[in-house]
Amino acid sequence: MSIEVKDVMGRVAIAVQADASFAEIVAAMKRFAVGAVTVIDADRRPMGVVSEDDLLLKEIDTVRHSVSLFETRKQRRDHQKAAAVTASQLMTSPRSPSPRAPACATPPG
């Protein structure tokens, strides 16, 4: 038995504005029983996604009093997210494609 995407995905995307607060994001996720919301700009275009993992960083991040020279890029990004107050600061953004990367993959065959 194969499972298709349509079998597990919702029909409606839940979105929050880029300036939505932490509390507003949590309320939307709780109200609609979703693990992530799309962050949209003023023109209602998707900018990124805030997931439960992004929100958890605010709860588990310890207070830093100094910057470590050996901190990784991911650790710096996690600390920035932990200090975030709006959806645009919390969200995970899509990575920009490399200028040399093809826009889409050529299907096999």
Structural notes for this entry:
The protein has 109 residues and is of the alpha+beta class. It has helices at residues 5-8, 22-31, 52-60, 73-82, 87-90; strands spanning 15-17, 36-40, 46-51. A 3-stranded mixed β-sheet has the order 1-2-3. α2 (22-31) links the parallel β1 and β2 (36-40). α3 crosses α4. The longest helix is centred in the first third of the chain and has 10 residues, at 22-31. It is globular and about 50 Å long. Mean pLDDT is 78; it is low at 97-109.
Briefly, what is this?
With 109 residues, the chain is of the alpha+beta class. It has helices at residues 5-8, 22-31, 52-60, 73-82, 87-90, and strands at 15-17, 36-40, 46-51.
Structural class: alpha+beta
Question: How do the helices and strands follow one another from N- to C-terminus?
Answer: HEHEEHHH
Helix count, DSSP H or I runs of 4 or more residues: 5
In order across it, which strands form the biggest sheet? 1-2-3
pLDDT < 50 runs, ≥5 residues: 97-109
Shape category: globular
Q: Estimate the mean pLDDT confidence.
A: 78
Sheet of most strands: 3 strands, mixed
Tell how many strands the DSSP assignment holds.
3
Task: Set down the secondary structure blueprint.
Blueprint: H1 5-8, E1 15-17, H2 22-31, E2 36-40, E3 46-51, H3 52-60, H4 73-82, H5 87-90
Parallel strand pairs: 1-2
Antiparallel strand pairs: 2-3
What key attributes describe this structure?
single chain; alpha+beta; 5 helices
